[in-house]
Amino acid sequence: MTVAAYVAQTPPPARRALKQLRAAIKAAAPGITERISYRIPTFELDGRYLLYIAAFKEHVGMYPVTAGMLAKHEKAIAPYRTGKGTLRFPLDAPIPVDLVTRLAKVRVRERRAAR
Known about the structure:
By secondary structure, the protein is of the alpha+beta class. Helices cover 44% and strands 27% of the residues. The chain has four helices and six strands; from the N terminus they run H-H-E-E-E-E-H-E-E-H. A six-stranded antiparallel sheet has the order 1-2-3-4-6-5.
């Protein structure tokens, strides 16, 4: 299965949210690749995973929440944080695209620094 197929098979509210997450991540991280891993969309940079997204009945999730993300955006991500490494964006509220873009940029910097 491809990421496009995964997105296409989700119900309309989740599909809209996944498309927004996917576009924000891709805009923040030029040169990333995407594939399905662990049965969910996975974004990779330089052959290493960057972020995961997934659709659920009432929300879409983004993983992982890293120390760098917390250091820069802890207050902004607090309403979406569930568990140690998960962000949940409810389907009945707007997706915070700007925040997702900023988080993806932090993640890119972390991955490139770890080379």
